[in-house]
Structures are given as C-alpha cells and as structure tokens.
C-alpha cells in the first residue's frame, strides 16, 4: 500500500483596521470549508506552536477516510506587523 500525502493550504485574509494594535489572529478552534472538510486547531502555545487535526470530506474512493494530524507554528509579528503561520 502506498502512503498518501495530503497538503492543505489555508488562506486567511488579514485585515488591518487603522492603527489598532488590539487586533489578534486567533487560529484555535474548528474551521470548516464549503465542501464539508474540517480542521481543528489547539491553542497556540507561548512559543507559537500548535497541533490539531484535519479531516477531508472529499473522496473518490469507498475506503474510510482517516483523520490527519497537523502541526504548525505561528510567528506572532512579521516584518509587516501581521501574524503569519504555517503547518503540515
């Protein structure tokens, strides 16, 4: 059996409202897309790391779809003063 590798690209629009520094990027929670796939992200720790899971609702097979673990990191302030993040 071959190993299937899933990639997930999540694009979140970041909006800057005036000069407000109170705006935060909150990743934790349940995220769903229009196809019914969902991703759950734990709280981001003090170092910016987080874990979670991804479960796709899209398939072309009769086989059971397994939940995929994810691990990521958030840089709370980038050079543009907006948080950035990535995960696999």
UniProtKB/TrEMBL annotation:
Query: What's one GO-annotated cellular component?
Result: extracellular region
Q: Which keywords fit this entry according to its UniProt record?
A: Biotin, Disulfide bond, Glycoprotein, Secreted, Signal
**Primary localization class, coarse:** secreted
Name the Pfam families for this protein: Avidin
SUPFAM superfamilies, alphabetically? Avidin/streptavidin
Q: Where is the composition biased (Polar residues)?
A: 71-88
Which parts of the sequence are annotated with region: Disordered?
68-88
GO molecular function terms attached to this record: biotin binding
Signal peptide annotation: 1-18
Which Gene3D superfamilies does the entry mention?
Answer: Avidin-like (2.40.128.30)
Compartment annotation: Secreted
UniProt family annotation: Belongs to the avidin/streptavidin family.
Specify the protein name: AVID protein
Give the originating organism.
Chrysemys picta bellii
């Amino acid at each position: 059996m071959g190993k299937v590798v899933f990639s997930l690209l999540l694009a979140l629009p970041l909006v800057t409202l005036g000069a407000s520094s109170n705006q935060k990027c909150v990743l934790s929670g349940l995220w769903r897309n229009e196809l019914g796939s969902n991703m759950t992200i734990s709280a981001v720790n003090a170092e910016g790391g987080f874990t979670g899971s991804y479960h796709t609702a899209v398939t072309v097979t009769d086989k059971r779809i397994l939940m995929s673990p994810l691990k990521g990191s958030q840089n709370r302030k980038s050079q543009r003063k907006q948080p950035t993040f990535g995960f696999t």
